[in-house]
Amino acid sequence: MRTLFARLSAALFLVVAIIGGGFFMVEQISSRLYYEEITQRLNASIAMYVTGEMQLIEDGAVNEDALTLLAQRAMIINPTVEVYLLDTDGRILAHPMPPESIQSEQVALGPVKKLMSGETEMPLRGTDPRNIDRQKIFSAHPVMHNDVLQGYLYAILGGQKYDELADSVRGSYVQKLSLGALVAIVLTAFLVGLLVFGLLTRRLTRLTSDVQTFTESGFDPEQVEALAYQGSGAGTQDEIGQLREAFSGMANKIREQFEGLKETDRLRRELVSNVSHDLRTPLASMHGYVETLLLKNDSLSEEERLRYLEITRKHSLRLRQLIGDLFELSKLDSASVKPTLETFSLAELLQDVTQEFELQAENKGIDIDVHAHDGASMVHADIGLMQRVLENLLRNAVRYTPRGGNISITLDKKPGCVAVAVADTGCGIAEHELDRIFDRFYRSEQGEEERTNSAGLGLAIVKRILDLHGSRITVNSRVNQGTRFEFDIPARAA
Ligand SMILES: Nc1ncnc2c1ncn2[C@@H]1O[C@H](COP(=O)(O)OP(=O)(O)OP(=O)(O)O)[C@@H](O)[C@H]1O
Ligand SMILES: [Mg+2]
């Protein structure tokens, strides 16, 4: 009883048995009622015919001989008829049956009068004097003499003869046949139901086993396809088909997330190895120079000593910057950090940031142009984070633009936001690298010299900060012609 199929089959069996049994009972009752109604209508006039033939009661005296004769005649018409002569109170005055077979001396007059009035539904049953437990259909007629009511003639239709006959017919060929047909119909219905349930539950069972296989396979893509595959075809639209579709969709989602997790894990490993590599290189170099200073301090010239110290300082600065960037990225990644939004002038911020790079740019002979209208540059953002974005972009522009180049920064008012563009006339980025430059630790293949001093974290930080502001950065670049970064910053609180 544990499987759905078994339960459905049991329920079906119950329903079929109830319907079959109910039908059998209704059929039995209705066929009996049908017989009784027909018989009563057909034989309604028997009593009238008997009373019409001879005078049965004359001033209270019963003509027994006439009654016996007439009863015999009536039995020729219908052998199951039993005739009684009643007085006006329903008491039995005479009958042609053996006296010991009579159980009741009294017949209820209610049904008799009802039948004679003609206003009644048939079959109508009355007292059977030979069997007080059971009422029977009957025919009745008043017995008159000189227009005075003397009593009634009461004729039971289907008396004991009928009962004996009906008993002997029970279990006859016809009855067996009809019962057999009923059982066959019920059984067929049950079997067809079993087949249908079997087909339906088989699909469920298959779905369950497919889902199990998928789970056990460790989210194998092939199993996802197997789940979806059987969904296409007949029966896709029914609930089981929809369930399969839902499962297949869920399996796809799970697999995607699983792949995503695997990718994240791979990136994390890569990050850790990149970080350790980037930390180790300057650290090893610093260690080497400090060791040399310690060991050969006496033999080193003042100039050499200063150079070694300068190199050590450069490496320690780089380490500090790297650790700072990593720390910042991990902070930005953790969901707990929310940008503190405030309204400020982006033009003013830009001015401060360009000032930081003025000296560096001047040394390289690079011009920095700013196109910004102070009034049209109010934005709603985290000012500290925005400063980091502009710094990183400007640092890149200055770093990757050769001597004599040009950098231009534009602020444009757009509906609901301010569009920022940072463009340079630098070395540019090869097309196949464009979608990787925002990855952590990604550094361009060209420019060996710049690579040693960079970690490849700047643009990753920029992208993350803009993500937090609901903005997207885009890049356009041509190798040896220049690069242009663009993004929008919300102008007002949403
Ligand atoms: N303005 C630019 N012109 C040309 N190439 C650029 C420019 N900005 C970025 N790139 C390329 O994109 C790569 C990634 O830039 P990102 O700022 O993330 O790292 P980085 O500048 O190399 O190092 P970091 O910023 O961490 O010091 C750079 O290595 C560089 O090759
Ligand atoms: Mg950078």
Overview of this structure, please?
The protein has 13 helices and 14 strands. Helix 8 (239-295) packs antiparallel against helix 9. The strands form 4 sheets. The protein has a 5-stranded antiparallel beta sheet. Strands 9-11-12-14-13 form a 5-stranded mixed beta sheet, with helices on one face. It is of the alpha+beta class and 494 residues long. It has 3 domains: 43-167, Beta-Lactamase, CATH 3.30.450.20; 224-337, Helix Hairpins, CATH 1.10.287; 342-490, 2-Layer Sandwich (Heat Shock Protein 90), CATH 3.30.565. Residues 325, 392, 396-397, 400, 424, 426-429, 437, 442-444, 454-460, 483 line the site of adenosine-5'-triphosphate. Residues 392, 395-396, 454, 458 line the site of magnesium ion.
What characteristics describe this protein?
5-stranded mixed beta sheet; binds magnesium ion; alpha+beta; 13 helices; 5-stranded antiparallel beta sheet; Beta-Lactamase; Helix Hairpins; rod-shaped; 494 residues; binds adenosine-5'-triphosphate; Heat Shock Protein 90
